[in-house]
Design goal:
9 helices; 3 domains; 9-stranded mixed sheet; 9 strands; about 60% helix
Length: about 425
Amino acid sequence: MSLPFKEHPLRHQLVTELHARTYMPLRAPARLSHIAAVCGERGSGRTVRHLQELLEHYGVPRPERIEQYYLVRLGDIRLLWERHTEFVSYTFSLPGPFTHPFVNPVITQLPADWLAGIPGEVVAAVSLALEPADKPEYSLDELSALFGGHPVIGSEVVGGLARAYSDLRIHEDGFSRILLRDQGLSPNQAGRLAKRILEVSSYRAMALLGLPPAREANACLSDAERRLVAVSSRMACQDDRSQEVPESELLAELTDLAAEIEAVAARTSYRFEASRAYYSVVMQRLDQLRQRRIEGLQTLTEFLEARLTPAIATCDSTAKRQQGLAERAARLTSLLRARVEVELQKQNRGLLESMNKRAKLQLRLQETVEGLSVIAIGYYGVGLLAYLFKALEAHGLPLAFDATYATGLAAPLVVLIAWLGIRRMKARLLKSEHVKV
């Protein structure tokens, strides 16, 4: 169908993005297995091919194109595949009654070799059970037993239409456990609730990925800060000749230190920013749960805020610390460069003064040589005239004066002519050099 207007090429993509985070409607009883695997921003091709292998195993035709999510039925199991920026999530749901919420999870029914070949590294694995409202409520001891004897946290969610319990631990089977009790949810509400709680698990893990690099970076930054303080102290002692250090050595040390700080920032800045973004999503999802306290239990928000907030604060403080150290190193480097330039200017001034003195000395020597040259040329000129006058006198040619007297009279004139000739030659040379310049 032709449109009566010119359509933007990204219009359909933008509308599709609104539905990229879909959910599976659920009806209690049901069980879910959820996996989030970090594969990087460039791992989408591998994950799509791996998904297609699973579809082939169950005889499902390959779709023409897989976008940000894909919802499919694999026999009795439904799969929701979602691609995120850094990770891919798989949510498998199986409706029907069960004896124990967490024994023989849904994921055990999938091909073992396919599970072993999931691209990337699993950062979150969750078993979730949705129980119907007609099932008897658990006591606190029974809840603790379901979660391996660990303390349980939980709250009423969706305004009291359900209850959510977990211990947020990894159990012997490698999965965390979440128990949902339906107290009046519609299938759509149950699907959205399960999705939000599973997203809290995935985004919580992704947010905490920034904490180990922050701790490692803090150790490096502490050493860098100590060295930076030492360099600044040595710079402050430059006036004390007994403790003076070559400024070139200080500048080299500062440059290396600044490079190390920048290397730490390059390794961690993206991770810290991502942790902050994931933390914001976790807080948003927790707010959407609309929790109400269950007497005797800590709510999900209270538990996660008490642990996530300090971790994210550590990432933030580390990011600010490395930025501050980089700025301090840059300021010290600029200051030291200014000192080096001033010192170079002093040395250049001294060199120019020395060259000026040498030039004056050379000028005096040149003038002395010029005087000696005039005397030498005059001496040889007078000698030549003496030979000429004597030769003329010997041949009997009449002379106004005798040869010796004539030679004496000609001596001043010869010296004057020699002096004028050298002056004229020097003037020509200076003029030619001036024209070249």
